[in-house]
Specification:
Number of helices: 10
Order of helices and strands: EHEHEHHEHEEHEEHEHEHH
Number of strands: 10
Helix content: 40-55%
Strand order of the largest sheet: 2-1-3-4-5-9
Shape: globular
Strand content: 15-25%
Length: 282
C-alpha cells in the first residue's frame, strides 16, 4: 500500500486524485489550499517531514491562464516556487515527487505533436511558471515524475466544460468558443489513472499523458453542446482576437504520447471520455 501526500486536494484535479487514489487503495493525506499555502517554504517542509510520505503529489496551482498575466507575482509564487518547495521537501524525506504540468510550456510553432525531449518555449506567464517548476523539480528532486497533459475537463473544477454546462443548465440556447488552438482535451480521471499506473511501475522522468485525438475549443464545445441535447449549428466559432484575453496561447500544443503507449498505457479519446461524463451527469 502506497502512502501519499496530496497537495491541492480541493481543486478539480485534486478531487480527481482523491477519488483515484482511494480507488487504488493508497493511504492518502489530502490537504487543500486553506490547509497549506505552497508558497510558504517552512510550512511545506513541516508538513512533508511530519507526514513522511512515499509519494508527494502536487495538484495545487494558480490555473487561470489569463489571471496569471495580471497577477504575475501570485502565479510565480504558487506555481513555480510552490513546486520547488514541495520538490525539495519530497527529496528531503526520500519521496517520489509527482508534478502535473501542461502543454502550455510549448509555443505551438510546429505542426507535429511535441515529444518529451522537445525544447519548451512558453508564450504566457502560466506556461512559464509551469516550466519554471519543471526545471526546479528536475534539479532538486532526484526521484520525480513530471507529467504534461492537455486542457483538463471533468467533474467540478474550472474549464470550458463547466462553462458550457452552466450555460445549458441556465437554459441558454446558443454558445460560442474560440476556433483557434489545437490541443488534447483530457478527462481528469483518465489522467489520474495514468499517473497511478506510472507510479506503480516505478517510472520517473518527464512523460506526456493526454487523451487520444485533438480538437480546438470550438470543436470541443460543439461536441459537448450536442451531447447536452443542443444543435451543432447553435455553437458559434470565435476568433481569438474577438475574445477578451490577457494571455497568448499556442496555435498547436498537441503532445506525442508514444512513450506512454510504449508501456501499454493509453488514455481514452476525449470524445469517448466526454460521452461518458455527460451520460453520468444526466
Amino acid at each position: 500500500m502506497v502512502k501519499a501526500l496530496l497537495v491541492g486536494a480541493d481543486g478539480g484535479l485534486g478531487r480527481a486524485f482523491v477519488e483515484g487514489l482511494e480507488a487504488a487503495s493508497w493511504t492518502v493525506t489530502a490537504v487543500g489550499r486553506y490547509d497549506l499555502d505552497v508558497s510558504l517554504r517552512n510550512d511545506v517542509w513541516d508538513l512533508v517531514r511530519s507526514d513522511k510520505p512515499e509519494v508527494v503529489i502536487n495538484a495545487a496551482g494558480f490555473t487561470d491562464v489569463d489571471s496569471c498575466e495580471i497577477d504575475k507575482w501570485r502565479a510565480y509564487l504558487v506555481n513555480r516556487d510552490g513546486g520547488e518547495h514541495l520538490s525539495r521537501a519530497a527529496a528531503d524525506v526520500g519521496a517520489l515527487f509527482v508534478y502535473p504540468s501542461c502543454d502550455l510550456v510549448f509555443d505551438g510553432a510546429r505542426s507535429a505533436p511535441y515529444r518529451e525531449e522537445d525544447s519548451p518555449n512558453p508564450l504566457n506567464i502560466y506556461g512559464d511558471t509551469k516550466l519554471g517548476a519543471e526545471l526546479a523539480v528536475m534539479k532538486h528532486a532526484p526521484k520525480h515524475l513530471i507529467l504534461r497533459t492537455g486542457p483538463l475537463f471533468g467533474k467540478g473544477g474550472r474549464g470550458l466544460f463547466q462553462e458550457l454546462l452552466q450555460r445549458w443548465k441556465a437554459g441558454e440556447k446558443t454558445c460560442a468558443a474560440v476556433e483557434e488552438g489545437r490541443a488534447q482535451p483530457t478527462y481528469r480521471a483518465d489522467f489520474v489513472a495514468a499517473v497511478i499506473e506510472l507510479v506503480k511501475r516505478g517510472a520517473t522522468g518527464v512523460w506526456h499523458a493526454a487523451a487520444a485525438g485533438d480538437a480546438t475549443p470550438f470543436e470541443f464545445a460543439r461536441e459537448t453542446w450536442t451531447l447536452f441535447g443542443g444543435a451543432a449549428e447553435d455553437v458559434r466559432p470565435l476568433r481569438r482576437s474577438a475574445v477578451a484575453s490577457s494571455a497568448l496561447r499556442p496555435r498547436y500544443s498537441v503532445l506525442d504520447c508514444a512513450k506512454l503507449a510504449g508501456l501499454g498505457i493509453r488514455l481514452r479519446s476525449w470524445k469517448e471520455a466526454l460521452r461518458a461524463l455527460v451520460a453520468e451527469k444526466r
